[in-house]
TrEMBL record:
InterPro entries per the UniProt record, alphabetical: NAD(P)-bd_dom_sf (IPR036291), SDR_fam (IPR002347)
Gene3D superfamilies: NAD(P)-binding Rossmann-like Domain (3.40.50.720)
Protein name, entry field: 3-alpha-hydroxycholanate dehydrogenase (NADP(+))
Keyword line: Oxidoreductase
One Pfam family this sequence matches: adh_short_C2
Molecular-function annotations in GO: oxidoreductase activity
Keyword Oxidoreductase carried by entry: yes
């Protein structure tokens, strides 16, 4: 095991886009710390899993501690964990608000703060957050205020952090997906969901992983909100 082999932390890593990101980073030769509420241990010695609620600061501490104990560094953080609740605005409950803000905002804040503190020691690092094209392109049939409130905040925080750390060797970017074929969307919904995109179909999970890997290798790119949304943000 090379001491110079890079390490990526991926949240929401147990399934869907998160699991695809773990696979993509391992293919790129990274060691990975993967976290999610119910994630299981991995047989791959270069993947460490940490089960826990990402909205809890203790989970963030345990994830960073695992990265340092096992691999002695933190190079990349991918904030993939997210909760989406589609309801009319006046139907949201206090519980909905608490759950979405805990995962989408607290889950971003705690682990990003701790990860950047480690990156500062090396004067090198990369943070990527997965947001949503709904922030820029609301759809009348998809009520999404809590997603826009929280993920829109991450888009803004991405630019703010990118500027704050621009001279430290730490880059901060985001990927803003359209609707992606993942376990959260049953196959019978794919045709209707695909029609919401100008290209006429949904995206694949690998499309998001490829976008994150592009940003990983794009050393002159920071503060970017990269739309991977089948043209949604461009218009209809």
């Amino acid at each position: 095991m090379s001491a110079s082999q890079k390490v990526a932390i991926i949240t929401g890593a147990s399934q869907g886009i998160g699991a695809e990101l773990v696979k993509a980073y391992r293919e790129r030769g990274y060691r990975v710390v993967a976290t999610a509420r119910s994630i299981q241990p991995s047989e791959d010695p270069d993947i460490v899993t940490v089960a826990g609620d990402i909205g809890d600061r203790d989970t963030a501490r345990r994830v960073i501690a695992a990265a340092l104990e096992k691999f002695d560094r933190v190079d990349t953080l991918v904030n993939n964990a997210g909760l989406f609740v589609a309801k009319p605005f006046t139907s949201y409950t206090d519980e909905d608000y608490a759950a979405v803000t805990s995962v989408n905002l607290s889950g971003f804040f705690h682990i990003t703060q701790l990860a950047i503190a480690e990156m500062e020691k090396r004067r090198s690092g990369h943070v990527v957050s997965i947001t949503t094209s709904l922030v820029d392109h609301a759809i009348s049939g998809v009520p999404s205020v809590l997603a826009s409130l929280t993920k829109g905040g991450l888009n803004a925080a991405t630019k703010s952090l990118a500027i704050e750390y621009a001279k430290t060797g730490i880059r901060v970017n985001a990927v803003s997906p359209g609707i992606i074929k993942s376990p959260m969307h049953p196959p019978e919904t794919h045709e209707a969901l695909g029609s919401l995109h100008p290209v006429g179909h949904m995206g694949e999970m690998r499309d998001i992983a490829d976008a994150v890997l592009y940003l990983e290798s794009a050393g002159f790119v920071t503060g970017e909100i990269l739309h991977v949304d089948g043209g949604q943000s461009a218009g209809h």
